[in-house]
Write a structure and sequence with these properties.
Layout lengths: L5 H13 L4 H6 L6 H12 L6 E4 L13 E4 L1 H10 L20 H20 L3 E7 L22 E5 L2 E4 L3 E6 L6 E8 L4 H17 L1 H6 L2 E2 L2 E2 L3 E6 L2 H12 L13 E5 H6 L6 E2 L5 E2 L3
Parallel strand pairs: 7-10, 10-11
Antiparallel strand pairs: 1-2, 3-6, 4-5, 6-7, 8-9, 12-13
Helix pairs in contact: 6-8
């Protein structure tokens, strides 16, 4: 029977929580003091007869350069963690690994980076993450051919209003803060320069907030009352973010006035290089710090 050291066990736990992680992200999570130490522990977890961890390597990308390898739990690694934990349903195991990052690499890494920053902020403040789910946690089938049926993504919100059938936020999180109101958010990672695509997403979120759908679906209450969520929008392209914020603040596409306080914006670069609570903006450009 394999005996894992504390750092190796910490890596397994992190993969069971986030599903996919790079060595850089493992360092950011505090699973080791350097990438070299992480790599040493990962190599032992990967290069064994009954390996609990597997790795996906990628060729250099013309625009992104060399891409970090992605790590995930093998079926044996999942069983290993499930045997040690009572909350077995919380072990995140990928259903498919062969194609998941071929066209989705930067987007998925950005989403996970957001949740790593959120976790570190929550732990720093003594809060507990009560719920965390990603858009790529899907059951068998596809959302596109399942209109009107059972949601195939844990994050899917059926709207069926004003021409919007449903939205699938990239992430959902609920952070418990003791006697305070829970910190309830939906997250969107927007890559590329397509402002119109983001505006369609934002419109869906305004409809969902107006109907109270997120709080109803996830059962988020404070003192017996449902509470509204906030939408955290992270942009790979700063110019696209500024254009989207301008259109929203000016109500150019739809009336955004009543829901403006629920939307926050930040660039991916700032997300990866600042603390979670700082650097956010409302659509009108006013800075806001998360508390």
């Amino acid at each position: 029977m394999e005996i894992y050291n504390n750092s190796e066990q910490a890596i397994l736990e992190a993969l069971g929580e986030f599903q996919f992680l790079t060595s850089t992200q493992l360092v950011r999570l505090g699973r080791a003091g350097s990438r070299w130490t992480v790599w040493k522990n990962l190599n032992r977890l990967i290069n064994t007869a009954r390996a609990p961890v597997a790795r996906m390597n990628y060729p250099a990308n013309p625009s992104l350069g060399r891409l970090d390898s992605i790590h995930y739990l093998t079926p044996f690694g999942v069983r290993l963690l499930e045997g040690e934990r009572s909350d077995r349903e919380d072990v995140k195991a990928p259903r498919r690994v062969g194609v998941v990052f071929t066209s989705d690499y930067s987007h998925r890494i950005g989403v996970i980076d957001f949740f790593i920053a959120l976790k570190m902020w929550a732990e720093k403040n003594g809060f507990e993450t009560a719920h965390k789910s990603f858009y790529f946690e899907q059951k068998t089938g596809s959302n596109r051919n399942n209109k009107g049926g059972k949601s195939l993504s844990d994050n899917r919100l059926d709207i069926d209003k004003n021409g919007v059938s449903y939205i699938i936020p990239d992430g959902v999180a609920i952070v418990s803060r003791g006697e305070e109101k829970p910190f309830f958010l939906l997250m969107e990672q927007h890559n590329g320069k397509d402002t119109k695509r983001f505006m369609r997403q934002a419109y869906g979120h305004t409809l969902a907030i107006g109907e109270g759908l997120p709080s109803l679906k996830f059962g988020v209450k404070h003192q017996g009352e449902y509470i509204a969520n906030r939408v955290f929008c992270v942009f790979e392209n700063p110019a696209c973010m500024q254009a989207s914020m301008y259109r929203l603040a000016k109500n150019l596409d739809f009336d955004f006035t009543d829901v403006e306080p629920f939307f926050l914006f930040k660039t991916l670069d700032a997300m990866q290089n600042t603390t979670f609570e700082t650097g956010w903006q409302y659509a009108n450009g006013r800075m806001v710090e998360i508390r």
